[in-house]
Design brief:
It is a single chain. The protein is built from 15 helices and 17 strands. The chain is about 35% helix and about 20% strand. The protein has helices at about 80-90, 95-115, 130-140, 155-160, 170-180, 200-215, 235-240, 260-265, 275-280, 290-295, 310-335, 345-350, 355-360, 395-400, 425-450, and strands spanning about 5-15, 20-30, 35-40, 45-50, 55, 60-65, 115-125, 145-150, 190-195, 220-225, 250, 270-275, 300, 375-380, 405-410, 415-420, 420. With about 450 residues, it is an alpha/beta fold. Helix 2 runs parallel beside helix 3, helix 2 (about 95-115) crosses helix 15 (about 425-450) and helix 11 (about 310-335) packs across helix 12.
Length: about 450
Amino acid sequence: MSTRLLIRNGHVISMDPDIGEIAGADVLIEDGAIVAVQPKIDADAETIDAAGHIVIPGFVDTHRHTWETAIRTSAPNATLDDYFVEILDTFAPLYQPDDVYASNLAGSLECLNAGITTLVDWSHINNTPEHPDAAIAGLKEAGLRAQYAYGSANTSLAKYWFNSAEVIPGDDVRRIRDTYVSGDDGLLTMGLATRGPGFCQDDVVRAEWALAREVGIPITVHVAMGRLAGRFAMVEQLDRLGLLGPDTTYVHCCYFSDHEWRRVADTGGTISIAAQVELQMGHGWPPVAKSYQFGLPPSLSIDVVTTVPGDMFTQMRGAFAGERARVNAVSWTADTAVPETMPTARQMLEMATINGAKVAGVEDRAGSLTPGKRADVVLIDATALNVAPVMDPVAAVVLAADVSNVDTVIVDGVVRKRGGRLLADVGRARGLVEAAQERLVAAAAQQRQAAPV
């Protein structure tokens, strides 16, 4: 028997150019799929009254180290260089599978609470074969749409991040693929989170790219960031190795040369920008304009909650303000008018939704409110004092709203948040992740005490 859900009388921002923006529109969902988006749909269905709400596609986070949820705000003042020591060389080796499960469960629920319905989980915490199983269990229990990007272990900074000879274990990647992600059209999909050239020896890079392509999963890699990967010209190296392709997402990209931008565009790569992290931790300016200049619609991501908030509102504003600040400063110094290519609020919403769906490999089922796509839908309360009165609904979402305004969240037709409350055992998830934090902090303190002076 089919199930029907009707979202009635909201201000719909569909992100579909053929449907556009409709005031007082309805969205009909049947068996998890969007059937119609138009005013005054007459249907026998469970109804959600969306009057006073802005209805948008769910946000897409294209790069988050979700396992770090248990150590949230542990590195508030960190630069990227500090992060490698404070997080990857201090906490990461101490993580047990239960810590990963708790972090992924709580982190995924955090996403849903903030209106993020699709997550690329960049999981470089596979210290044992039990770690990826735990990560996937957390993602699946929360019920969001997720790409699990299998990464390396993190038991030693020197071993895994300095000219590393350690290849991601192919047999375990195949096990995870066969066990949990045999297809590519479900709520859970899979990718490979690789460290890439500059961090790994060429043979390792070749092996990991070959592994991903053998297994049939996309690749996601940090590039051109700060004083670490910024100096390696990683795209040039990948090009030399003959590895560039449309299956690869490049994360950060703050120090690409124009030639690297051109090569990524020519080979069909995709871009993920973590604006708040990039501005705050010293990766570089978020490359919003450069992405668009080379015909690469960028997406947005949170990256690490050790240092920045875990919501897409922060990222949209970080990208918007950061790029406009950079362009304004250049124009002021040159005493010229700002260019017409200055980013707009609508572009930020595109980056957080339809662009993100393309980068995450789910454009055919998410990212816009289009009949035929799966129903990943968010209702923003536009009657709240921080949003009302609404003059420009796109600006209201991008520049006024916050997590407190996320009223209803639907993933694949299933209501995951309603009336401002998650329909999940939040207390249990919080208890698990708090216990993980306590254990990790205690273990780190014990490790420091045991270290030779």
